[in-house]
Fold these 4 entries.
Entry 1:
Amino acid sequence: MLSIIKHKLYYLLFLVLVSLDQFTKQIFMSSYDLGQSVFVNSYLSWTYLQNTGAAFSIMADGEIIQKTFLLTVSVLVSIWLVFWIQRTSIFHLQKLFGQFLLLSGAVGNLIDRAQFGFVIDFIDVHVNGFYWPVFNLADSFIFLGVILILFERKLTV
């Protein structure tokens, strides 16, 4: 219990980020038709897609076994992240922030997978005819979390 208390602001951040992720996904599910795309500017569109696979739609055409596998992996990774966070010192601010971004993204997509059997994607970035695969806020949290952890600066006291 003590370790949860020492990370309480990070857990609050986690709740805010997961809520924001779920809120934006609900907007697209309720306001857009599947596959509908709305041009925002020359670099961004809102495109509502349902990803039944993993990152970059890997295993997207899978049967129930693959969907169960992806859900199980999501649960295990989320549990592992909580244990990793609990073992991280409060003095590793950048690492903790990265870990909580990772956890927020993992849980955001886990909620989709458990509830719908797919992950809701809607951010469509494109530059000069190059289109990045459509993603969501949870995916962005995961990406930023990995960057923060990989490039963690060590604090010296």
Note: The chain has one domain: 2-150.
Entry 2:
Amino acid sequence: MPSVQELITKIEHEIEELPQGVLQPDTSFRQLPEWSSMHALIIIALAETEYNVTLSGNDLRSCNTVNDLHQIIESRKG
């Protein structure tokens, strides 16, 4: 089971515009100035390829923090 910190590291690696260390478990990632709909697609693809979990746009909209996103991914892993 990956930790929330591992998820943060993967997100920071995939979204080059995010400065390293900006994301924390309680960060409201959708409120970041760098956030765009393209980043939502990147996170959806990341969940699919890294964790074999399908996320929807509604899933992301329901997440307030990185920890919320981590909890959804963990709850859907097989």
Note: The helical segments are 4-14, 37-51, 57-62, 66-76.
Entry 3:
Amino acid sequence: MSMKLKVDGKEIPLNEFVANIISGSVIGAVTSLKGIKEDWKKIEIEISK
């Protein structure tokens, strides 16, 4: 599994611990939603302010 974090187009390096925490939280939240198949391939999140 891989994870990338970009802020204003700049990729932010993540160590393995932080990447695991963020990806685990997102995967846990998303897969608990109705209609999400177990064989998903990619999750994308975009946040703007």
Note: The first strand starts at residue 5 and ends at 7.
Entry 4:
Amino acid sequence: MDCDILIIGGGPAGLAFARYFKDSNLRVVVLEKSPLETLQNPPYDGREIALTHRSREIMQNLGMWQRVPENEIYRLRDAKVFNGTSDYTLHFPQPSKARGGATDRLGNLISNHNIRRAAYEEAAQCDNVEIRCGVGVKLAESNQQEAKVTLENGEVLTARLLICADSRLSQTRRQLGISADMHDFGRTVFVFRTRHEISNQHTACECFFYGRTLALLPLEEHMTNCVITITNTKAHEISDLNPEMLAKEAEKMLNGRLGKMEVVSSVHSYPLIGVHAKRFYGVRCALIGDAAVGMHPVTAHGYNLGLESIDILAKLILKAVAQGKDIGNEDLLEMYSFKHQLHTRPLYHGTNAMVTFFTTDAAPVRLLRDATLRISNHLPPLKALISHQLTG
């Protein structure tokens, strides 16, 4: 075998997974099509990642959290949900306790490029991890004896276990015959940073307007990441705007809640597609990160679920190594899939159902949307359950 674990995809999930085996005797190879410079200095891509307390714990254990500049870890104090043009909100306050101690936040926000850099820096300093950049994968296959990858340059690599971490549209997942539920929301997401006159109070907001959705992710007190979601047929209404016009559009959507606004970053757009693999493993292979589950961003669970996947699978592998067992055996991979699916499947389908409900603008549904917020505000057990999901 060329290595014990072969990881396709050098994103934050694949690299964090590789880092998990720093103190083991396992040989790990990471394949990434992007050039090395992109991993060392990932460009800003507009995405701010909301991280739960559990995710922070995992990242700290991997040394990633400590590599993010303290002034670029942003406090997420609480969250509010707005419906239509109403000022009434469903409020999720900061929890009084989290993991046995007092806390002043629901979670934290860190820019995706900082997470990617931290994951690379940690994985790169592992003696047993090789990161090969600028190389594409032509074919991935596996059998009971080994997993095998053929690179675009014709080179063949074999491993005891193959890990797919190559995005929610994973070509590797398809080649290995693992099917997935895919939901194209028919919408486009635009993300950009703004500065504004009025404090955001470190409060995240999800505003389900009619025809559009606007999420506000607080960074500094007077700097907020705006996430506008709009149907593809009307995406030009946002993409055609220059920065000044875009800032005025955000002001208008918020009815001046943050005062005068200014766009202070580049604007990025992404297609809105959700994915959930029907199982997270195959013969000598497993899916992690977005290759396993690609969530709608409304519940901010994308990378949190990615970290959860690597935490579950890596611990099972290390346990198998300690017991002298095969790290690619079906029982181990099936256990990983069962544990991770237990959480992700209801969350994935529940999120999609919620998004469909709150983006349906028919008159009767508008009234029901408003009533749902008001009723939910007066159901402490329900709010506690949702808060538990938000904090991890």
Note: The first strand starts at residue 3 and ends at 8.
